[in-house]
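Lab meeting, item 3. Inverse folding demo.
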């Protein structure tokens, strides 16, 4: 059990930190760590969907079409990985 109950300020700061991470795998890793703290805390007022969206991991963020820069980076990574 947590010593203190997390508040909206805590959740907002966590979401701000996660949302600033650009690498998806790193973002997901930090999100999961925060998620574990939140679950342990057990605050009944916590809104999971709102937190995911604030972290940039809501359904709209994850399943949106990539922009031109994201496609450029993806294509470069795919090309680099396929070079012998």
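The presenter then showed the designed sequence:
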């Amino acid at each position: 059990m947590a010593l203190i109950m997390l508040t909206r300020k805590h959740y907002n700061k966590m979401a701000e930190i996660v949302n600033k991470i650009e690498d998806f795998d790193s973002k997901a890793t930090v999100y999961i760590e925060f998620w574990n703290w939140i679950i342990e805390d057990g605050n009944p007022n916590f809104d999971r969907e709102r937190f995911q969206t604030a972290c940039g991991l809501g359904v709209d963020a994850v399943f949106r079409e990539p922009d031109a820069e994201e496609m450029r980076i993806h294509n470069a990574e795919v090309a680099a990985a396929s070079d012998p």
